[in-house]
Automatic annotation (TrEMBL):
The record marks D221, T222 as: Cleavage. It comes from Rosa chinensis. It catalyses: Cleavage of a beta-linked Asp residue from the N-terminus of a polypeptide. Belongs to the Ntn-hydrolase family. Gene3D superfamilies: (Glycosyl)asparaginase. Heterotetramer of two alpha and two beta chains arranged as a dimer of alpha/beta heterodimers. This is beta-aspartyl-peptidase. The keyword Hydrolase applies. GO terms for cellular component: cytoplasm.
């Protein structure tokens, strides 16, 4: 009798252990993270970030790996070196990384001669108490910290694009209501005389309010990426070479925390792409995260942020993705069809989502 009771007890114990192992394994696989989300069908960049985070690296490490892959691949010709020449034919880099745990940010803007934008941004975050370094001094910092350089960030493709633009009388460009003789600069104050309505305030230009008609997928774009790691911590990053034919010195939303991307471990994260000159005035990613903090679902938070911009600038083009701390994601856009890429534990590979304006 004692033997039978012991055997029954052993059987029940073994059954319980098997059930625990099976259900425990299933629970592990059903965790909402790690997750990688990126603007556009930048599949290889998402794969690079996924490999990093799936191997136990932090969210910040994975963001740097993913954005670096896009810089190396020159995604859409608008990330990394070799694309988006300014009015002088030069390519510069803007980048940002943000840690949603510490709320630390590192960023570089209008960086010349250094191709590794996201790595330079991380060095700013790691080794300084600053948030943003700009221009040639950002390049000096990055090189002093061990990044390769100086190097020419232009390419044969970017120079060919710039030459054709010059032949087209430097159109389109980013100057308001001015086409000097010959079409190209340098521009001076006298070129703008008489362009303002004297019956109105001296800040009211004659003509249409600025639109985003010459902003598009292949002349102004950003990789913006969010990663939630296996510990549930979130980080975001961006990298871009900015608007094609921009006025030299221009900085868009790429290195601006809260505009191109934003993260808070308690809530989630956001990434943005589009007409940065307009979008940065609204800090759409900060808006998205704060809306989610107040209980709004990612889809509604993304739509709300975009609609706030569209009410003031109905012709702008842009998009955001939102992801909450549970891995729920959504996108919203205006003026173009937007795509964003995702990889999570339920997927065998990266999945691209399409969002209609």
């Amino acid at each position: 009798m004692a033997t039978k009771t012991l055997s029954s007890t052993c059987f029940l114990t073994l059954t319980f252990l098997l059930l625990f192992l099976v259900t425990g394994h299933q629970a592990l696989n059903s965790a909402p993270y790690p997750v990688v989300v990126s603007t556009w069908p930048f599949v290889e960049a998402v794969r690079a970030a996924w490999r990093a985070v799936d191997n136990g690296l932090s969210a910040v490490d994975a963001v740097v790996e993913g954005c670096s892959a896009c810089e190396e691949l020159r995604c859409d010709g608008t990330v990394g070196p070799g694309g988006s020449p300014d009015e002088n034919g030069e390519t510069t880099i803007d980048a940002l990384v943000m840690d949603g745990v510490t709320m630390e940010v590192g960023a570089v803007a209008a960086m010349r001669y250094v191709k590794d934008g996201i790595k330079a941004a991380r060095l700013v975050m790691q080794h300084t108490e600053h948030t943003l370094l700009v221009g040639e001094q950002a390049s000096v910092f990055a090189i002093s910290m061990g990044l390769p350089g100086p190097t020419n960030l232009s390419s044969s493709e970017s120079m060919e694009k710039w030459i054709k633009w010059k032949e087209n009388h430097c159109q389109p460009n980013f100057w308001k209501d001015v086409v000097p003789k010959g079409g190209c600069g340098p521009y001076h104050a006298k070129d703008f005389v008489g362009l303002y309505d004297e019956t109105c305030s001296n800040t009211t230009p004659v003509g249409n309010i600025r639109s985003s008609s010459h902003i598009g997928l292949h002349n102004h774009d950003t990789i913006s990426m969010a990663v939630i790691d296996t510990m549930g911590h979130i980080a975001v990053g961006t990298s871009t070479n900015g608007a094609t034919f921009k006025i030299p010195g221009r900085v868009g939303d790429g290195p601006i925390a809260g505009s191109s991307s934003y993260a808070d471990d308690e809530v989630g994260g956001c990434g943005a792409t589009g007409d940065g000159d307009i979008m940065m005035r609204f800090l759409p990613c900060y808006q998205v995260v704060e809306s989610m903090r107040l209980g709004m679902e990612p889809k509604l938070a993304a739509k709300d942020a975009i609609s706030r911009i569209a009410r003031k600038f109905p012709d702008f083009v842009g998009a955001v993705f939102a992801i909450n701390k549970n891995g729920v994601h959504a996108g919203a856009c205006h003026g173009w069809t937007f795509q964003y890429s995702v990889r999570n534990p339920d997927m065998d590979d990266v999945k691209v989502y399409t969002v209609l304006p």
